[in-house]
Amino acid sequence: MGKLFSKQKNNGIWNRILSDDSTRLRLKYDAYYHIFDDQTGTRVTKDGKEYVMLSSNDYLGLSQHPKIKEAGIKALQKWGSSTTGARLANGGRIFHRALEEDLADFLGMEACHVFSAGYLACASAITGFVDRNDLVCADKNLHSSLWSGIKLSGAKCERFAHNHPEHLREILSHEDPKTNKALVIEGIYSMEGHIARLPELLEVAKEFGAFLILDDAHGIGVLGDHGKGTANHFGLTDQIDVICGSFSKSFSGMGGFVCASKDAIDYMRSHSKQTIFSAALSPVSTACAHAALGIIRSEPEHRKKLEANLSRYRKLLDELNLDTWNSESPAVPIVLGKKEKVYYFWKALLEKGVYAIISVAPGVPPGKDLIRTAISAAHTEEDFDLIEEAFRYAVTKI
Ligand SMILES: Cc1ncc(COP(=O)(O)O)c(C=O)c1O
Known about the structure:
CATH class of the largest domain: Alpha Beta
Bound molecules: pyridoxal-5'-phosphate
Radius of gyration: 22 Å
Number of strands: 14
């Protein structure tokens, strides 16, 4: 790449690329972008060494489910690899509508639109409805897809303290009552494992007439009757304006969705650029997500296994006196507070054959540097024996 004209002319973009500290540190510590060369169930292999995967969002352990594989293969054979177009144009197929109808019905919403990524779906859940004259009140710990949506909407944004209805109320009480307001929250916060204080937040939303957008990427499949998610868990589905999420967690697939009233979905289809200008969800991804939905509805054993696995894991973490930030879900952070401690703990887990993820400030609040772990229904007793041994070793290293 020596002939790049921009580089020879000292374009500042190249200076930035070549002198970036975050990239230098990331490459030095080699904690991210790992590539596994094989996988069987919860075991992954890298450079000839096997690890128990302890950070995947495959909460229900469905990624190898035979019904999902079969559905994906059939869809590929019948429909090919892609519809090569946006839904607005040539990309819509009967299988999109079938999934949308079933998912809306499952979640207790009127209508649904599916997207080729959860990130796109969750950004669209904001850009599809909010515009630059509106005010967005956002939980401080939202996922990046929602921040992108907020930014792209051009709306004014106020952040309130994480999962803190009283702070939200205080912010809203200073705002012009005539401004349109939207409240953006998650059902389960993926890094912290916290469940939204939905009843109290909804009370505030009602008081100020706010439009409520709930990203339930991590709640669906895990909470509520048959895994219908956080809104269902609290019996409040009929009071939520928009529920969005991803198929890459409990559905063990790819893609995402926005569910709302029919009017709202029709409006989003006219206004969200991410909905209008991005190719439709692929035949394989649609079929896999649809098969996963069927399994979530009809095979409660996966949730039961997840609960049993989670209680075994929690018992171990309690015994070792590890701080899990009061996680209430299968997403369980191990808060160690300092980058160095996180790094040594993580290295020790790797040494003993357990793969987890590091998350440090600014990705998490200062003092909350952590190892992000997540439990799956697919974890076996043998996995837990290994996890237990690795954790007992790792605590001696910090
Ligand atoms: C809360 C939340 N919303 C949206 C997304 C985006 O989903 P995807 O990774 O499937 O694009 C994620 C994924 O990390 C998430 O955690």
